[in-house]
Amino acid sequence: MSVQRVLSGIQPSGRLHIGNLVGALQNWVRLQEQYECYYFIADWHALTSQYADTSKLKEFVKDVLVNCLAAGLDPEKATIFAQSRVIEHAELHVLLSMVTPLSWLERVPTYKEKQSEVKDKDLNTYGFLGYPLLQSADILIYRADYVPVGVDQMPHIEITREICRRFNNFYGEVFPEPEGLLTQFPKVVGTDGRKMSKTYNNCVYLSDPPKEVEQKIRTMTTDPQRIKRTDKGDPELSPVFQLHKIFSTKQEQDEVAEGCRTAGIGCIDCKKVLIKNLFTVLEPIWEKRNHYLKKPDLLEDILESGSKKAREVAVETMLDARKAIGLGGLK
Ligand code: TRP
To answer: What is the share, in percent, of the chain residues with pLDDT greater than 90?
Structure first.
């Protein structure tokens, strides 16, 4: 059997943070060793909610690309591209829209949830309703076997599978049915203890300079009941400890937990261990970021040559899809 294909995308809707690193990028890096991987920057998806202000779009696309490379994605191993540079995604989106019942889109949980959650934007648009279908086109056009995503994206994989079956039923087996590869990872908490998210302003960004990372951790919330240095704490109530679980060794976790419970160490001592470990992960990333940021031409080349490679696959698939529907020429 030929090597199986993996596809995944990330929205350039803000700068990437350490939650994106451990939740997605590090997993993508592992997968590139084993599979034929296609990773893309979903710039059209970002437009579905940020159409009214596109002033930062270019900056965010660049940030995603630089971080992908800095985290270890290798353009020699994986195809890294921009969605909007492979316009066939849009064509497939149109074709899929013909067979997609409106009710399927309306019942996707992220649709109503996000509409009611996001108050500063008008998401009563056609583009926003069609978000999951555009994602289906992204996936099906590469005939991907696996789609690594977090649990929040599973409904989008599910609708993709349904659309896939429906299309194949009407027109013949054009697309294999993709599977979600659930990325098992604990939610990364932000500096205030809530889920790390740009809307909460509690992120440690990959683009933060070292001083700022240190400052953010130093001022992070801890167990709210441990007020004085002599108070005993409960590590499970401290977001700092949640980050230790991701970035520190088991031994260090045991030591800071014990120190917290017995008031043997202060919160700053505990945070210093976390800062050291975060720096160990981030230093090589910072170094590579600086390297790429000095080479805008190289970045443009990487994105364009990846997009060209992706386009070749997408063009092939569209020949089959058009032909199956009866749009493949008159002969
Ligand atoms: N919706 C995904 C997210 O927000 C991004 C995305 C767009 C995607 N198209 C995709 C992910 C296709 C996987 C496959 O995270």
So the answer is: 94
